[in-house]
Amino acid sequence: MPTPALRTLLDQATQDRDEAVAALQAAEARVVAAERQQRQLADYRAHYRDRWTSQFGQRGGGGMEIVQCYQSFAERLEQAIGQQTHSVGHAQAQVQRLRLQLQQRELRLASVRKLAERRLAALNQAESRREQKASDEAALRSRPATLPGVLG
Q: What is the pTM for the complete model shown?
């Protein structure tokens, strides 16, 4: 069993790693949502263009106001797609940062675990040595004392 200080350090490193895992999962979910929204906007743009082309072709042209209205809406839609593309990129960059942070925290946790294992091994070895010394001393005390060169 690690010392209380090592146990605390191990618990904190574990908690830090777990928090990093949760943050990464949340960031990955934000990427998925941002990409989904980006696809929806792109799909809507394609649908809007197709509908406009179809309606514009059926009417044989349209007034300048209608064309300007289409162009204005198409520009706003392009801006929204551009902003969403930026959001996707930002979310992906956040995922990369959090992956690095998670790797660092996993490395720290592994280091603390290794330290605890070494400390425990050292304590076990010291205990084993004490037991062996006590056993040797008990064996020496239980043997009858004999003097060299004296036959008994």
A: 0.73
